[in-house]
Amino acid sequence: MEPLVALLAVAVAAAGGALGPAVLRRLPDPPPDDHPADEPAPPAYAALADAPRLGAGLAAVSATVVALAALVLGTGWVLAYVVLATPVCVLLAHVDSRTRLLPKRVVLPATGALVLLALGEWAVTGEAGEVLRAGVAMVALRSFYWFLWFVNSAGMGFGDVRLAALLGLVLGRAGAAEVLVGAYAAFLVLALPALVVALVRRDRSRLRQAKPFGPAMIAGALVGLLAGPVLLP
């Protein structure tokens, strides 16, 4: 039964990823004042959606992530959260890496759907502990990122704060170690590539270049999910 559940989860994630271009086409473009005046305007969402084989790429990445999650986490309730969040996060990573924007019309409905899933799990199982942990992690991680945004809004967008709530809920449902490792790994994923490039090219200005944080947050969350209990027993 478990292999069938895992295959179904992979198929659902792939289907969700394949819908990414259609979602992008329906998004209204952000107003011009949503990006710094000294930077070029980001490409339109519809233009991103027209990239060749984008749907296939998003589907493949989503399916791979869920397959790894099923292998490591099993086919319990946690996998349902991962299946729901993965296509959204893969799409957001793609968009943020090209526009430095995390559209709230994607982040907020996905977070709401995850909250409904948590409430549904509570209703079905009657077990409140793990669901409450997920809720606490969601609030805690969002609050942490809100504080970072509050003290340095020039270096972090509010989209990262919204994304932190989504990731915190999923990581919290998996476990406390997953939350801590996932949150810490995000900063390593963001900083280490820039540090390596700066050292290789002997150019410290690389460290000061603005970079989208969403992809690093999502990659860090994946590290937390797959390796959290191993790295932080």
From TrEMBL:
GO terms for molecular function: aspartic-type endopeptidase activity; methyltransferase activity. Residues 86-191 form the Prepilin type IV endopeptidase peptidase domain. Its EC number is 2.1.1.-, 3.4.23.43. It comes from Nocardioides marinisabuli. One of its GO terms (biological process) is methylation. This is Leader peptidase (Prepilin peptidase)/N-methyltransferase. Belongs to the peptidase A24 family. GO terms for cellular component: plasma membrane. The keyword Flavoprotein does not apply. The chain crosses the membrane at residues 65-94, 182-200, 212-232. Keywords: Hydrolase, Membrane, Methyltransferase, Transferase, Transmembrane, Transmembrane helix.
